[in-house]
Specification:
Elements (H helix, E strand, L loop, with lengths): L2 H13 L4 H11 L2 H7 L9 H10 L7 H10 L1 H10 L10 H10 L4 E6 L13 E5 L6 E3 L5 E7 L10 E8 L8 H9 L6 H16 L3 E4 L6 H5 L7 E7 L7 H12 L4 E6 L18 E6 L2 E7 L4 E4 L2
Parallel strand pairs: 1-5, 1-7, 2-4, 4-11, 5-6, 7-8
Antiparallel strand pairs: 2-3, 8-9, 9-10, 10-11
Length: 316
Amino acid sequence: MTIAERYVRFAEREARGVSPSYERLARAVSRDEELLSLLGTLPEAKQQPNLFFGVVRLLGGPVDEPAAFRDYTLANWSAVAAEIRSRVTQTNEAGRCAVLLPLLAALPQPLALLEVGASAGLCLYPDRYAYRYAGSASGGHLIGAGEPVLDCVATNLTPPEHRPEVVWRAGLDLNPLDVADPADVAWLDALIWPENEHRRDRLRAAAAVAAADPPLLVRGDLVDDLPALAAQAPADATLVVFHTSVLYLVPAPRRAAFAETVRELPGHWIANEGPAVLPYTGLPQPPSDTHLNVLALDGQPLAWTRGHGQGITWFG
């Protein structure tokens, strides 16, 4: 897939209906030979729209109008490129806990959570957030209290009655972020799409939860360092290794090595990734042509999920 095709795909499948600004930007970039040429000087993993747009936002550049974005990027390309090369997308969307909750609540309690690609660890607190499910099988269903409240449309699924009990939480990341560091929080904020103010509010609320009881965050590789961190989990808790929208950043051979490693660990493995990221056979037709993830437990696909946790369609 060419860089231009990736940007068109992003506009059509991810940004459409979610961020008009990013849909416009992505389409404009896909037609701009000068910007495409500059992106082509970067490693393939660094060419993605989320990273490009997030860096420009972090640096104070405009992302509302393609012409202003283009002018800023061309005038400041050396700074933009340097920032892109030094960063990875670390969207730490607490809302994804809403699609993880049905699995987490159903596993033997209590849980020891280990998130791969944890960023600042905001998805390690499914027991601390409140949830509001709507949909055919839920009829409006509130679980827990406090902030943030995570909204999710549930289809073909009756939401759980309770939150999980978590007695240990740890994260593994090549570059873990610290919610107590304003610069790290600024990067998380820059990765939130322009119109998504509700996600910005949710980030602040989730960051406050994490800052009050910081998780164990370890700098390390998802294959080489996973077994040692998993071994620290308490023996009387159910180990759950999970990840959401992370493995697409990992080369395919390394993904396969990770899957082999995690299958050998005690406990359970929850994956929430795009349908092309992990090999699943016999997936049903997705409910829409927007970008969806596949939620799987121990290699068994169970549901389609929206990227920020705003919807889950059960088929398992």
